[in-house]
From TrEMBL:
One of its GO terms (cellular component) is axoneme. It is found in: Cytoplasm, Cytoskeleton, Cilium axoneme. It comes from Tetrabaena socialis. InterPro entries: LRR-containing, LRR_dom_sf. This is Protein NLRC3. Its main location: cytoplasm. Transmembrane segments: none annotated.
Length: 512
């Protein structure tokens, strides 16, 4: 190994070899989505990037399985450097055509997010603080392609590389501040580039080592997991996921449990897009396959020596059955969350009700279901789940036809769950009944600050209830808009109450 490579190994430790989302898209020949759009774009809907990467055999990386990417691209590209792909890149030991994968391109240079990396990381550490957009600097400099790990990706080498990147892409779209909420542009969203970096073993670990993995210079996976927010466990195929049968993936989950980090279970795209309506039996079958039958003693590894070492670690630190039990709880929680969100989008009321009865709760910090048109009954079940979901802080619920029934259920969640801080509930056909329920809920939740109510059917009674809440000392920002049925006198009363309160509370506002 050359001096340059050794220096790069030391300068860029294992945890600092994670890849940005734009670079990952380039690795499957896709360009960054530009402008505003009404959907959450799939990989297929993105434009092709110029010069998509190919292996030695001439095939596109996007057509290969993960192990084939290693064999036909990564190993040949790093043969001379004899180190990981990212280490070779950092030390300048990759050929130009290989280094281009991690080098910025004009495809996405102009689309930097607002806020610098440090500001974003500080916000992630304590999301309860207000994110200061004004104080944050604009991204005028280049976002690095490689940086410190945000998320460790646990996956199976036997699955397609494109499928893996698509699951990571869908996970990225659910990250805080990644997507501008749709309420501002009639359902249109803007996808932002944010400093989130994914650690994927095939690129971060040398693929030239043979022998006892415990002696591998890139074997400290626990340090990588500890450095980031947690692990994204990919689930493909979703009906019988390979990852839960692989001992390495279970080992990575064990590190999450030890470090107290986040575990995010993410099924492949067909889970979300399938027209198949999940019946009660299929839901129970999925939970049985992925949770009830989960047993680390039957998990497999390509290298038997690796399996023996991991099983020995599990047995000495936990014991086989205690480890299985510790694993099944988080796995069931995550699968129930995925089932609930899938059923919510599909308006599958029986599946929603079953997931709610089984204890589903949401863990995403920002719930964005704008213009899903879920209806009042689904909104009622969503309210029950939100009431026990302490991870959710912001909700984009506009365009969901929830009416008073759904709005009342959301209000009950706001009153019960004090982690909830804001809600965009525009375009939902809500009248005074639902509006008054929300005002009463806001008074009971000291942390709730922003309520957007555009394009509903509120009358003066709701506006005057807001006035009364302000006079009682409630600090909040309210968006009414001209599309409600509130008179000019009532609007003036709210504005007057707001002006009177400004001296007592910073940040109080009325938007009309």
């Amino acid at each position: 190994m050359s001096r340059e490579v050794l220096d790069a190994q030391e300068k860029y430790p294992l945890a600092d070899r994670a890849i940005s989302m734009p670079a990952l898209l380039c690795m499957v020949g896709k360009a960054w989505p530009k402008g505003r759009r009404t959907d959450m774009p799939s990989l297929d809907s993105l434009l092709d990037a110029p010069n998509p990467p190919r292996g030695l055999d001439g095939r596109l990386l996007s057509d290969m399985l993960v192990w084939e990417v290693v064999q036909h691209f990564i190993q040949p590209a790093t043969e001379d450097a004899h180190c990981s792909y990212i280490t070779a890149f950092n030390s300048g030991k990759l050929k130009e055509e290989h280094a281009a994968l991690l080098a910025p391109t004009d495809v996405y240079l102009e689309y930097w997010a607002s806020g610098d990396i440090q500001c974003y990381k500080e916000w992630l550490k304590d999301p309860s603080i207000e994110y200061d957009y004004q104080a944050a600097k604009s991204y005028t400099r280049q976002l690095p392609s490689v940086a410190t790990t945000t998320w460790f990706v646990s996956h199976a080498w036997s699955r397609p590389w494109r499928e893996l990147v698509d699951m990571v892409w869908q996970h990225y779209l659910r990250q805080p501040l990644c997507v501008l909420a749709p309420g501002h542009w009639n359902g249109q969203r803007e996808i932002r580039i944010i400093p989130v970096f994914y650690w994927i073993d095939i690129w971060a670990v040398s693929q030239h080592f043979k022998g006892d993995f415990t002696k591998h210079p890139d074997s400290d996976f626990p340090a990588v997991i500890t450095a980031g927010r947690g692990v994204v466990l990919t689930m493909a195929p979703w009906a019988s996921p390979v990852t839960v049968s692989r001992v390495w993936c279970l080992f990575e989950i064990m590190q999450v449990l030890k470090a107290g980090k986040l575990l995010e279970v993410f099924p492949e795209r067909s889970f979300w897009e399938s027209d198949h309506v999940m019946a009660e039996e299929s839901i129970k079958q999925l939970l049985s396959t992925s949770v009830d039958k989960l047993d680390c003693s039957t998990a497999q590894a390509t290298v038997e020596q690796d399996r023996q070492w991991i099983m020995s670690s599990i047995e000495s630190e936990y014991g086989i059955e205690p480890f299985n039990t510790a694993l099944r709880g988080p796995m069931q929680d995550k699968l129930l969350e995925a089932i609930f969100m899938r059923s919510l989008k599909a308006k599958n009321i029986p599946a929603l009700a079953l997931a709610e009865r089984l204890g589903a709760k949401l863990t995403m910090e920002i719930l964005d279901i704008g213009f899903w048109h879920i209806g009042p009954e689904s909104a009622g079940l969503l309210g029950q789940v939100l009431a026990r979901s302490p991870g959710v802080r912001e909700m984009t619920l506009c365009g969901n036809d929830m009416e008073d029934e759904g709005a009342t259920a959301i209000a009950e969640a706001v009153a019960a769950n004090h982690s909830l801080k804001s809600a965009d509930m525009g375009s939902n056909g809500i009248t005074n009944v639902g509006g008054l329920a929300m005002v009463e809920a806001l008074k009971l939740n000291p942390n709730f600050k922003v309520w957007c109510t555009d394009r509903n059917e509120f009358e003066d009674e709701v506006a005057l209830a807001v006035v009364a809440a302000m006079k009682e000392g409630k600090k909040m920002e309210v968006w009414f808009s001209k599309w409600n049925k509130i008179s000019e006198d009532a609007t003036c009363a709210v504005e007057t109450a707001w002006l009177e309160m400004r001296g007592a509370h910073d940040g109080l506002a009325l938007r009309t």
